[in-house]
Amino acid sequence: MRPNSQALKHKLSHDSEREFGGTLGAVCIPVFLPLTVLFLICLSRSPEASLFQWPPPLPSTDQLWDPLAPVLLLGWFALHAVIYLMPLGKVSEGLVLRDGTRLKYPINGFHGLCISGVFLMLLLGLGAPLGYLFELLLPLAVCAIAVSFLFSIYLYIRSFWAPSYELALGGNTGNPLYDFFIGRELNPRIGDFDLKYFCELRPGLIGWVVINLGMLMKEVELRGSPSLAMILVNSFQLLYVADALWNEEAVLTTMDIVHDGFGFMLVFGDLAWVPFTYGLQAAFLVVHPQTLTVFCCIGYYIFRQSNSQKNQFRRDPTHPSVARLETIATATGKRLLVSGWWGLVRHPNYLGDLLMALAWSLPCGFSHLLPYFYVIYFTVLLIHREARDERQCRAKYGLAWDTYCRRVPYRIFPYIY
């Protein structure tokens, strides 16, 4: 039976706390984050590469546009849409929705990475100048930002034809600016094609790896061979992306899929912010070669093991790998892990993520702060995300969550935070 639409609409509109600064954040973030992307790209290519450089390096109009950029970008999206629809890999069900149903998702993102790799190797074999991606960074970023705005407008408009039980909690406040930003519809689909799930791990994340490869090839053009620092950055970040896609099924239990609507926040993050800011280290190394880490291995191990433990426990608490772990019962009937990785800190996956981010910044040396922008930004992001998790879990689990917090007092960093 479908939930009562009027009661649900009232709950969606009034019971949810507004995130990211509410209306002020919804106005400022779509303005300043795109400008930040362009600013950071310009900065990574400037001789000083200083975050405190004033006046900042401003691009000319010619540098912002190249007719090849929209062709490449839209072609890239089309390629991965085709791969998404191909009968590759398995099909997995998501968590139970409010109306009692489960959506089905194709688990073939890793196939998309492999097919992209083969395609790129063919292009290199044919002599394609992949190093030209260095010159195209700004035009590609401009196009990705434009696509993010247009796609978000489409998602906002189409959400008014969606049933109320398909709207995201917190995304139907009645404030158009905030709802456009945070996303009204939870799982927008065209037929069986899930728009949010597609964008979450595919064109932007794999595009990040491709951009890195372009930076490596540019370094080969300039210096004859890639530097050790460039190889390390490419390797660490490829490992991160490959792992996310190999374990793609785990994303079905994350906040982005389960809780957040699909609006500008996630669209821009997936299609523009990730590919053009997460790989700043590679762009930086093209212009600022470094002569010159165990951190990546440690971070990866913590990240993967803790995420796998949580995902397995959510899907099957009786599985041998998690059945012996200590838990706390909650009023909802679910149980909270208080041993294993989740007994060390409340978010060991965040700790591992931050260690990996530090690992791929260290090859850039210590002469500039810019390569560490991602580490700084990601620390702030994860602390904010942890606070969102904390509010939701406290509201959901009540006294059981208080008990868990007493058992596991540290949020992300053991003995620090």
Automatic annotation (TrEMBL):
Keyword Transmembrane helix tagged: yes
GO annotations of cellular component type: endoplasmic reticulum membrane; nuclear inner membrane
Membrane topology label: Multi-pass membrane protein
PROSITE patterns cross-referenced by the UniProt entry: STEROL_REDUCT_1, STEROL_REDUCT_2
Recorded metabolic or biological pathway in which this protein acts: Steroid biosynthesis; cholesterol biosynthesis
InterPro entries: ERG24_DHCR-like, Sterol_reductase_CS
Localization, UniProt: Endomembrane system; Endoplasmic reticulum membrane; Microsome membrane
Transmembrane domains' residue ranges: 20-47, 67-86, 107-130, 136-157, 258-276, 365-384
Entries under Pfam families matching the protein: ERG4_ERG24
Record's catalysed reaction(s): 5alpha-cholest-8,14-dien-3beta-ol + NADPH + H(+) = 5alpha-cholest-8-en-3beta-ol + NADP(+); 4,4-dimethyl-5alpha-cholesta-8,24-dien-3beta-ol + NADP(+) = 4,4-dimethyl-5alpha-cholesta-8,14,24-trien-3beta-ol + NADPH + H(+); 4,4-dimethyl-8,14-cholestadien-3beta-ol + NADPH + H(+) = 4,4-dimethyl-5alpha-cholest-8-en-3beta-ol + NADP(+)
EC number: 1.3.1.70
GO terms of biological process kind: cholesterol biosynthetic process
GO molecular function annotation: Delta14-sterol reductase activity
Principal location listed in the UniProt entry: membrane
Stated role: Catalyzes the reduction of the C14-unsaturated bond of lanosterol, as part of the metabolic pathway leading to cholesterol biosynthesis.
Name of the protein: Delta(14)-sterol reductase TM7SF2
Organism: Oreochromis niloticus
